[in-house]
Predict the structure of N-terminal double-transmembrane domain-containing protein.
Amino acid sequence: MGLLDSFFASSLQFANQAGLYALLSIIPLIIIYLLRPRPLKVKIPSLMFLMDIERKKRLNVFRKFLKDPLFLIQLFVLILTSLAVAAPFIMANEEAGGGSTVIILDASASMQAKTTLGDTKFESAVGQADKYLSSKNTIILAESVPVMVIKETSSGSASDALSKLKPKATSTDLSGAILLGRRLLPEGGRIVVFSDFTSWNGDDPDIAREVAQANGIIVDFVTVSARTDNVGIIDGWFEGSDYKLVIRNFNKEAQNVKIDVTTNNVNVLSSTLNLDSQSNGYFTVSKLSPGTTKISLNTDDALPVDNNAYVFIPKTMERNILYIADNAKSPSLVALNLVPYTTVKTVDTKSTPSFPGYSIVFVNSPLSSDAAKSLSDYVRGGGNAVIIASPGLQDMDLLPVVLDSVTNKTSLNVAQASGMTDGISIDKVDVKKHFKATLRNGAVALLEGGDESAMLAYWKFGSGTVIYSGLADPQGSNIFDPLNENVWNDFHALPEYPLFWKQLMEWVSGSLDVSEFNGKTGQFIKLPARQTVKTPGDSITTDLLLLDEVGVYGLPDRDVAVNLYNEQESNLAGSTISTSTGAAGAGEEVPVTAQTIRVPKYLDIYLIIAAMFLVFLELYYLHWRGEL
């Protein structure tokens, strides 16, 4: 067997060998050319000397075929088409999975930890990821949810995208990212995960790796290490107008941590907290003012992202109210003073107060005719008033009810659900006395007695709102004495009593709960439409906002303060991932070179393209000869 035969036997193969029978189509072509009509020949004696030359030409009958370009073109078209039907191919080397690689980068808060070289874990991971790029690359950021950055791009584009990525301040879902990568890869593809593997949400990443490997995917884990010293804020919450924080020392030595508190960029508090090794400390910021408050730990540790906490309180949360009563110890007054961000000024009925400038006016004693007229003018102009039933209360035009005589015991029922009474055990209130009150036209009853008396009602009066509460405050001393005739009900004895007044204040002013303005990283905010949001680091346009940075987000309708508050992410010396056979485990060296496999490279498409080119060449030749 010659060298050429050996090459074809070892390299060129046919997936459809029966297709080679199509080469027999060459025979009819040759027969057609042999049988086609020839021009009439006339013998001229003077040319007889040429007969011998003509006789020699007949000795090679196929020589005329070689001189006919049209025959040659059609011959090669048949040969190329017949070979294409036989599906020829050669075996060639190719990266496994078609050269497809999924790079998964842990973008959690712990990846912002500093290494001994001065960079961060994330920056180190990005530098290593460049070595694993192949011909087709997909990059996934493993945040609290997997975020796909690019899909099946070249190594150059992938390298450029890697250089622009930054770590976030969330937890990480490594298993979710691995399973997403598995769905994107063909069999033989490769997933490379870069992480510190100290903590994660969801399933163990090692389980997700085994699932991917069962589907023919190669999964490599590359562990990125850094410093583990850290002191961080791991929790925070509101208690009234105070804000409490939990600060943990993750180090093996005790730490003295300096804490600075600024509100609206003005320092309001500086303190020092002594923390034992591996212990928590508690810190309280009292009576927070509206605006943005930043609590900072002045410590040079490995993870700066958990050294700051932000608290935002909108100006609308601040309320300035006026309370008119002759009894300075009324339970409702005590409850209102407990409502956060509320300033209460108390006056008696002998004074002539000026109502403008107050967001709400509370009346808990009978008013003079002049004071009642001034209050009516204030409400008509857009003010809000809450009138509490009291002995001697006179009927007024601004009341949503018409008062009648005082009557005795009745039950108490919810007439209409409202935010004011949500969570209040109304059915447990014992009403011993109350005003017989009838709703005015346009008024709404929220609570009513068993005798159909309106016990809690409101209506619009001019541009303002008036609320009537038929649950009178107790008078005199011994307000918890059930035999005291000045105690009309025991509502003030319920544990939910302060909550009622807080909810009433929020209902009147339309204020949201302060928690609506403060959140944790990893949460989502659904926006009504695509909007531009100013994040702590940049601006984005979206309709579903993922809170993945620590700081203040500027939404079109409000600001939201966002904190990490994740002890697992702050614990840089957390547990490491388990290892298993069949893939590189945590801390193991992973080979950079991609796996190469032998795959067939089919040539039929190239043969078809060549045959089509010859067909067009034939048409051009016929046109040139004038036959088309």
Summary: The two ends are 47 Å apart (CA to CA). The chain is about 25% helix and 30% strand. The domain at 317-509 is CATH 3.40.50.880 (Rossmann fold). Residues 1-9, 579-591 have pLDDT under 50 and may be disordered.
